[in-house]
Amino acid sequence: MAGLKQLKSKRESINKTRKVTRAMEAVSAVKMRKAQERALGGRAYAAGALRILSNLSGSVDTQNHFMMQPRTQGKYGIIVVTSDKGLAGSLNSAVLRKVDAFLGDPKYKDGDKVFMCIGRRGHEFIRSRDLEVLSYQENKSDSVGEEDMREITDMVVKMHEDGDTRAWYVAYTNFRSTFEQEAVLRRILPLSRGALDEVVEAIVPETGKYSDTEHNGRTATAYTIEPSPEVVLESIIPALVNIVVYHSLLESKASEHSARMVAMKNATDKAGELSHELMLKFNKARQAVITREVSEITSGIEAMK
């Protein structure tokens, strides 16, 4: 009987856990849909803005602009976007592996690294390495606006203007689909047409509701720029850096909720399988007990004859 009670107690515990994971799956599914709509809906805006600068850099001589010139002096800056919460599979680990690979790359060993962290997991990782953290921002809210990134992007642009940094990168999770997310590390400064085209191609899907098939190809657009290319670039570049960082956060949010929903669904399914297996074991054990008791009763009756 002790074995039956243990199996019954274990099954009840698993069923309670299954109810929790099913509820978390439902909540994550709602958040996932909202985050996906924001991320995918913002892609057209981000791609359009980046494409303007891409075409602008191809139609005028912008290579001498200080925000577009390659540098050999200064620190490397990395913005690390992770989540504050767990239960999302290997989402954060994949981003941190990208950062770790960057730190170990001989190509970047000639300069110090400074970090801006959005999300607790990334902040803990950087602090554990005794690396310099310029700013830290929690990543708990799902209703973050573009203006919330201003403090970070203003600091990025200011440090690059002052010559303190040679390049800036952003590490985040790129949302591909509900079941597929990809950790990426992209350069955001210094700007170049090739880097901008790469970002545009990465954030605009080839097909589907949010695809931009009419304008996905590179177009040689000639711009008449007033009052001057320098003035326009100085105005548009900080805004575009802000767009890239904000879009990275939206992509990470969509990826986080998608990964958590999938993880909770897998946990719910696994709990259901375990519950079913325990039910079979319980029934077999109960049948064995009943068979033994019937056998004992039958033997007793036979002995009394």
Can you give me a brief rundown of this structure?
This protein has helices spanning 2-59, 91-104, 120-128, 150-161, 193-203, 229-304; strands at 75-81, 113-118, 132-137, 165-177, 180-189.
Poorly predicted tracts of residues? 213-218
Structural class: alpha/beta
Radius of gyration: 28 Å
Run of helices and strands: HEHEHEHEEHH
- The CA-CA distance between the termini, in Å, is 30 Å
Q: What kind of sheet is the major sheet?
A: 5 strands, mixed
CATH architectural category of the largest domain:
3-Layer(aba) Sandwich
Structure overview:
- With 305 residues, the protein is of the alpha/beta class.
- It has 2 domains: 2-27 and 260-304, ATP synthase, gamma subunit, helix hairpin domain (Helix Hairpins, Orthogonal Bundle); 39-257, 3-Layer(aba) Sandwich (Pyruvate Kinase, Chain: A, domain 1), CATH 3.40.1380.10.
- Helix content is 59%, strand content 14%.
- The chain is built from 6 helices and 5 strands.
- The protein has helices spanning 2-59, 91-104, 120-128, 150-161, 193-203, 229-304; strands spanning 75-81, 113-118, 132-137, 165-177, 180-189.
- It has a 5-stranded mixed β-sheet with strand order 3-2-1-4-5, with helices on both faces.
- Helix 1 (2-59) packs across helix 5 and helix 4 (150-161) crosses helix 6 (229-304).
- The chain starts with a helix and ends with a helix.
- 31% of the residues are buried.
- The model is unreliable at 213-218 (pLDDT under 50).
